[in-house]
Amino acid sequence: MVERKDYGFFNGYKVWLFTIENENGMKVELTNFSGAVVSLFVPDRNGIFEDVVLGYDDLDGYVNGTSSHGALVGRYANRIANAKFTLNGEEHRLFANENTNTLHGGMVGFNKRVWTVDAVTDNSVTFGYLSPDCEENFPGTVKVTCTYTLTNDNELKLEYTGVSDKDTVLNLTNHSYFNLGGIHSGDVLGHELQLFADYYTPVNSALIPTGELADVTGTPFDFRTAKLIGKDVDGEILRGYDHNYMLGEPHVMRKAAVAYCEKTGIEMTVHTDKPAIQLYTSIGLDGSEIGKDGKKLEFQTGLCLESQYAPDSPNQPNFPDCTLKAGEEYKFTTIYAFGVRG
């Protein structure tokens, strides 16, 4: 069942709030501003529904927010070094919005756009966005969509598509901040996390990959065996995580991660056919923004698991190629599946 409500206007465009509810009572709220997941209510071990994504109380929060809560991010999610890349022998200079780098698409990424509502079914909503040639100096006019489907198996499925009229680079992700203890339950350092990745991509001081694929063995980045997120966080050398993990070749569906909160019993399993995933423990939240229920969005209170191409892939020849050829289809799926442990 899908309900649509008025959510306001932005720059003359109509903004909607959609609610999808499945037969188990699980609900997701979505808005076509930034294509964001606004709320996600899932049952805990006692059958009590918890909202497990951080966000804002109203449209103004999403318009003015600086942390991409719940948003669909592009044209290129994550970072591109020195705000430039070369494609087919031509250098493309982008807008730098994080020191000298481009982050999450540039000055005005997809996370600050009103998306079209392309389709609505009994259990899904499809948002679309047409990104013109040279928007943020990326080449090609690109049409992208994301279909959110809530299944009766308590899965939130995201299906991304894209097509361009010129060769370009494209990397879409969802930037939801999860807290499986509920949005006001404190930090996520006590969440248990398992990541099915043997390698991560070390970064320099600007959080740009060095190009190395580093074995996680014997490092704080090894989550192959489930452990508490905070186990190796010392607050100084490792303040938290903002690191990319390599999963394998693109277009191979795999289990990427499992997160669990002992307090509520809520477990979230992530499946994706993207080649990498970013683990981000919201180390950029500092209490300066106000979130839901008028509460501050605090340090490390959210867990992001962003399926993606690796950061700076356009400049890293040994990473999976993120080039989208003219006329070819970009097509990926990520699934967040929810359950409980007793």
Give the tags.
single chain; about 350 residues; mainly beta; Beta-galactosidase, Chain A, domain 5; 9-stranded antiparallel sheet; 5-stranded antiparallel sheet; 1 helix; 27 strands; about 40% strand; globular
Task: Characterize the structure shown.
The chain is mostly beta strands. It has one domain: Beta-galactosidase, Chain A, domain 5 (Distorted Sandwich). It is about 0% helix and about 40% strand. The protein contains 1 helix and 27 strands. The strands form 7 sheets. It has a 9-stranded antiparallel beta sheet, with no helix packed on it. Strands 1-2-3-4-5 form a 5-stranded antiparallel beta sheet, with no helix packed on it. A hairpin with a 4-residue loop joins strand 3 and strand 4. It is globular, with a radius of gyration of 19 Å. The two termini are about 30 Å apart. The mean pLDDT is about 95.
